[in-house]
Amino acid sequence: MGINILNSNKAEIQDGESLKQLEYIEQAKDKVSALEKELGRKLTACVVTFGCQMNARDSEKLLATLKLAGYEETESEDADFVIYNTCSVRDNADQRVLGRLGQTSNFKKKNPNMKIAICGCMMQEAGAVEKIQKSYRFVDLIFGTHNIYKFAELLNTVLDSDRMIIDIWKETDKIVEDLPAFRKYPFKSGVNIMFGCNNFCTYCIVPYVRGRERSRSPKDIIRECEKLAADGVKEVMLLGQNVNSYGLDFSDDNPDKISFAKLLELVCEVEGIERVRFMTPHPKDFSDELLDVIAKNPKIARHIHLPLQAGNSEILRRMNRKYTKESYLELAGKIREKLPDVAITTDIIVGFPGETKEAVLDTIDVIKKVKFDNAFTFIYSKRPGTPAASFEDQVPEEVVKENFDMLLKVVQETAKEQTAKLQGRTETVLVEGVNEHDKSLLTGRMSNNTLVHFPGGEELIGELVPVSLLECHGFYYLGKLVK
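User: That's the sequence. What structure does it adopt?
Assistant: Structure tokens below.
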């Protein structure tokens, strides 16, 4: 993992808030240096991420701030500064965070200089901060999703204080992205294009914790992509809760108002960017224009993640998904026809209130007809504050488990069939690193996101290379470099 901190040069920063945060980093650096001299050792920091790609991108910025302030990164939570960047989509994520906090309290007893921070979506939930205040009083810093850009300022405050610092905003219209980021991979990066969600699916807490949709200006997005390309990035993933509603929050007379399809075209024009991904689109906003742009531009990855959630129209109505089983199948068919080489992946929830065996069979019918290349399948998690949490017809746990196992079996069979279709072909692979289990192999991803392992030298890491797909092993391939 190399150090890749972008935009830490003040001369390149255009946003006043970003400049202010860089100044706070310099102040924190002096405080960390003084503490190092006092303790006679380097200070360490650990950022633990739960949740989506947007959280992962936020964590890259948190880690960059800590590293620029003088901390050394460690994967151990027995560090001098630990941040838990939380998710609130499912209840088990909340429980995992609280469990980790309990363990970390033991580390703090041994290291009185240790600082513990908790941020992200869970902290925007009603009652979450009060719970931390009451039961986890050793936590030093609590902040949410809307002011994560202020972390350098908050870091300074917490280094000077012995009390718990809480800074939670209910909402914001501010977007600050021109900040340092520490990338795990030097050759690929996420790029936030919008924040928040306006859809209010009845099971989902995201609109309540991330706020309403706010799009970044296309000029800022392209400028970030250009800087990333200059820094060696070859693949970018455009990120948002609902990327294909990008720009809809701009007024009609705003010169920045363009469609997501047009934004994709502009990103593909950035010299040095060789592959473009996006996550996550909503089926109700997936336009013919977007399909046409993907079809004519080989830079755009042949992978579309198209969340289904359920295949029964009545369940979809109760979920407030704004499409039906039939309209979803029509869209998927159009995608398959226009992009025959595309991989379609999805999200599926099992056990939503009111779901019957017939409703589960409807979902299985969609899986078989669309032939998903992979599906992330979840058991419904009741989230307090969402409409579905108060629905009276909750499905018994044993019924949900039986339906989940039945559906998962179909998902796995279909995904294996789809992956096996590529055997014998030669595909372009972005090499991501040395295989963790076999050091003689490299690991990379095809345009459709399928993993490939093949023999090769480390000098190929970060390169796009042709690989012959020799053996399909369920969800990945063993291949051979084509020279």
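Residues 217 and 296 are 24 Å apart (CA to CA).
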